[in-house]
Amino acid sequence: MPEVNVALVGYAFMGRAHSNAWRQVSRFFSPRLTPRLKVICGRDRRNVAKAAGQLGWEEWATDWREVVGRPDVDVVDVSTPGDSHAEIAIAAAQAGKAILCEKPLANDVRTAKAMLKAVRKAGVPNMICHNYRRIPAVMLARELVASGRLGRIFHFRGTYLQDWPVDPQMPLYWRFRKEKSGSGALGDILSHSLDLGRFVLGSEVTEVAGALETFVKRRPLPESPRRKGRVTVDDAALSLVRFANGAVGSIEGTRFATGRKNYNRFEVNGSRGSVAFDLERMNELEYYSQDDDGKERGFRRILATEPEHAFFKAWWPAGHIIGYEHTFTHTVFDFLEAVASGKRVRPDFEDGVRNQLVLEAIERAARTRRWVAVAAL
Ligand SMILES: NC(=O)c1ccc[n+]([C@@H]2O[C@H](COP(=O)([O-])OP(=O)(O)OC[C@H]3O[C@@H](n4cnc5c(N)ncnc54)[C@H](O)[C@@H]3O)[C@@H](O)[C@H]2O)c1
Predict the structure, then answer these.
(1) What pLDDT, in 10s, does the model give residues 320-329?
(2) How far apart are CA 132 and CA 199, in angstroms?
(3) Cα–Cα distance for residue pair 21/129, rounded to 1 Å
(4) Is residue 40 a contact partner of residue 98, using CB atoms and an 8 Å limit?
(5) Distance 299 CA to ligand 1 centre (A)
(6) Does the beta carbon of 184 lie inside 6 Å of ligand 1?
């Protein structure tokens, strides 16, 4: 298969997850384009050189501008904090590269729209990395909704709970600073839950109410821990939502749910049944059908690992489960297929803007303590 040269910007958490995906995809799937791990970019010479060796990249660099301008780079993968997504992605679009960008697309709607405009103008393939869409059990939930098996949809209930910053001594690193991350739990994890709601229901959020809270207001500065700086993002974000299809729901993201590490869960209730998903048991989907015989009615656990389930044929025999890292491999596979075919792949930068419009409406609703209509694209 013809090769495409990939440049990855960012080598830490997502850098590692994406590197693994780029490396594995051709070993298990047969994409029409074979990715070559050409160059990885970060700011620190020593660390990026080490990452290149460990993660399997041919070259390393410290200036993303030089990297996105290289004629031998075909794909740019943006895995940096939110404040740099736009400048990297816009430069990559102008250089004609295909772009995979981490979420949230940008730190505000205005910037996200500028990114969408740039990829549209350049006509380049683009995708935002809401990787949870590509879990086979999640895709089954969407199929059940789309097929009408759940009937009329009443509720989407999404919760994304973590607890890593509960310790007030955790330093004020980029995720606590609005100018770097845009928001806290809102953009970081509620955004995933929101994207899952839009994906599984196949419907847009039209109106929101919201509440944001910051529990730890000051944290030690990373460079001088005896001094403290102000936390400028939310620790917890809660929202009530209305969907265009008439469903009402709640979406919650918090980093202060002690004991909950990465508890990404949703439930959909409809007139003919319900589904429930929990990332900590990501190979399973709970399904309840009103059509079942009365005595046997109850939630059943579907192990979504059969060859009929999305992506599974490429991995293992039924029952041989997959994990977190596979979600990125699936994302990268579909992205490569879109680059090869020129067809739209979802979620793309337009979905990124749509998500951002909802996040911004939640912020406004929280500020004004009123319901807010989500602005049009
Ligand atoms: N899809 C997911 O589930 C998921 C999970 C975690 C994070 N994210 C997103 O991924 C992005 C990165 O988060 P992370 O957790 O990997 O962060 P991180 O702090 O672990 O890593 C950030 C990386 O970006 C690099 N970097 C920062 N500014 C840079 C610049 N100007 N030029 C070059 N490199 C730069 C850093 O050196 C580091 O390698 C964020 O947008 C975050 O919201 C997505």
Answers:
(1) 999 999 999 9
(2) 10
(3) 12
(4) no
(5) 38
(6) no
CA triplet 81, 206, 197: central angle to 5 degrees?
A: 60
Task: Compute, in angstroms, the gap from residue 1 CA to the centroid of ligand 1.
Answer: 30
User: What CA–CA distance (Å, rounded) separates 103 from 198?
Assistant: 15
Residues 212, 30: Cα–Cα separation, whole Å: 44
CA angle (218, 220, 222) in 5-degree steps: 135
Encode burial over 203-230: b for 16+ CB neighbours within 10 A, e otherwise: bebebbbbebebebeebbeeeeeeeebe
Distance from C-alpha of 204 to C-alpha of 197, rounded to nearest angstrom: 9
Residue 175 CB less than 6 A away from ligand 1: no
Instruction: State in Å: Cα 9 to ligand 1 middle.
Output: 8
Confidence of residue 48 (pLDDT cuts 50, 70, 90): very high
DSSP string, 303-320: E--STTSTTGGGS-STT-
- Which residues, 6 or more positions from 336, have their beta carbon under 8 angstroms from its beta carbon? 4, 25, 31, 32, 33, 35
The whole-number average pLDDT for the span 344-355 is 98
Could you tell me if the CB of 82 is within 6 A of ligand 1?
yes
Across 139-159, b (16+ Cβ under 10 Å) vs e yields bbbbebbeeeebbebebbbbb
Which amino acid belongs to residue 270?
G
Determine which residue's CA is closest to atom 37 belonging to ligand 1: 42
Task: Report the C-alpha gap between 270 and 150 in whole angstroms.
Answer: 5
The CA 209 to ligand 1 mean position distance, Å, reads: 29
DSSP 3-state assignment of 220?
strand
Q: Give this prediction's pTM.
A: 0.98
* pLDDT of 1 higher than 90: no
